[in-house]
Write a structure and sequence with these properties.
This protein has 24 helices and 20 strands. It is of the alpha/beta class. The protein folds into three domains: 251 residues, Thiamin diphosphate (ThDP)-binding fold, Pyr/PP domains (Rossmann fold, 3-Layer(aba) Sandwich); 154 residues, 3-Layer(aba) Sandwich (Rossmann fold); 138 residues, Rossmann fold (3-Layer(aba) Sandwich), CATH 3.40.50.920. Strand 2, helix 6 and strand 3 form a beta-alpha-beta unit. It is globular.
Amino acid sequence: MSFEILSRLESPAQLRSMDDAELKRLADEIREALLTVVEDRSAHFASNLGVVELCIALHRVFDFSKDRLIWDTGHQIYPHKLVTGRFDRIRTIRRRGGLMGYPNPEESEYDLFVTGHAGCSVSTVLGIKTGDDLVSDVPRHAVAVLGDGALPSGIVFEAMNNAAGLNSDLLVILNDNKMGICPRVGGIASYLDKARVAPFYNGLKRDISWLLNRVPVVGESVENVLGQFKEAVKTFFHGGMLFEEMGFRYIGPVDGHDIASLTEYLRLVKDVKGPVLLHVLTEKGHGFEPATQDPVRFHTPAPFRRDEHNEIIPVETASSEAMTHVVSAAIHDAMTRDERVCVLTAAMCAGNKLERVREDFPDRFFDTGICEGHAVAFAAGLAKAGMKPIVDIYSTFLQRSFDQIFQEVALQNLPVVFCMDRAGLCGPDGPTHHGVFDNSWMRVFPNITVMAPGDRSDVAPMLDFALQQDGPVSLRYPKAAAQTVARRTTVVQSGRSEVVREGRDGTILAFGTLLSEAVLAAEQLQQDGLDVGVVNSRFARPVDLTMVQRALETGFVLTVEENTVQGGFGSAVLETASAAGLSTDRLFIAGIPDRFIEHGERSELLADLQLDAAGLRQRIVSIAQNDIGSVAESASGADSRVS
């Protein structure tokens, strides 16, 4: 397919002069462009197919060069990027140095926030709208596109409550496709299912007082009749009652794949005073049948191409079992052995590879939806009742439950196990998804044990250890292939590390799965005449003081972690050594620097940050050279400390 319209689309303002046929052609071109993206990389796909017409209609009715628009969650941003002048770069999306897979204000004036976490759009749009009204006389419209999967997030209702109280001129578009990454769950999901089949309701014409004058009251009390009538009205208008009662004018549901109809409804609500919710029904994967049939698989599918019959041909890529699969299998085994073990996730059953757990143990599997704080507090209650809950959530998403980890788990010293997937660099997902802070914020809480497996052979023993503890435990692992480091493994004991290889010149203390890179670096350093030991540290809280003391007595020590250096494992080692009165002059910390890391393949990012084997080797050669220089300076009376 040629891209006749997209190739000449420089501004969304051009959409306003297009006729229906051109708009239909544009929608087809957008979907074809999305198909080219997934030919050679994994990318968000089905969700973007589902918002093509909605995106076109929004940019026809509003001028988002001055009006405000936030997409929630931002992984459905690809059509928006295509109509805002980025078609020529769309093949670079999720590549190092290319377009981000989420909105990015550095790319375009049409992107306001980097929205990689769900639920915050109503709050941020409300803030922008309120700020615009305070600082400028120029009227600006404010629109939030909110996915139905994000709707149950507590912050959404906090924001809607505030918006209604302020009576702000705000449009919330509920993009209802019956899905998050997986099918939506819970009471809100059931409510929206009913709303989908409810009659169309226009909240702008909600005055029904004329009906009250026509209620027959003969033979029954007015009170009874009015009560029955009220329930009948609620039933009839079921789809919008929740939002109407919250102070939003509700309109819908409307067809999200009819550009002309969407355009008219958006024009209808554009200048309405007060908060409005437009309920739009879309189909995840719309326009590409395989994606509509299996939207979970095609949320972020493996690369594929199509043959002349439009059949899918998977693109061959090197693959090996991921740490996520290894952890999921260990969870399944633990639940098989112990009926008190249960698992909770926050709309990430597929991402955490928990489908088999859900199928085999439905009574002990809990998907809370995108409600991480609730998931942790729920787990605390389960633990209090005698269960052994595992909270299996991405590191970057678990941050949203920081207060519940503090108040409901750590403070109560309850045995909740946190399995943090995507801990470390998350590759093409970029800064919104890099889980590079949990070492720092997890270890600040009393009572919590902080662990990380060095390789796949550590996973099952560590999980078993965690489930035997009387207090909370965190266990982190990356979105990466499961490596196996050759060694004689030792029993997992609290605060005890594991020597992988001895070294007379210095020691690498590796926390987590960079252990394999550390071992490879040590092997390569032999070519530089350096004999470097490697330790699988296993614990960041408590730190193995005996090992730290022994390593510092041997030579230099380099701590290695896939976490920010601020407050991470290296800081824990430094604090432990200092408290024990040990010299830290030859202690060095390698980790994520004090900046947000952009997107790219994990291997590329590790190399950029000198956290791969080559980078660690280079760091250690530099340390050794400084050591030699320091000895010479010391002999001449100079300061021998290495900075």
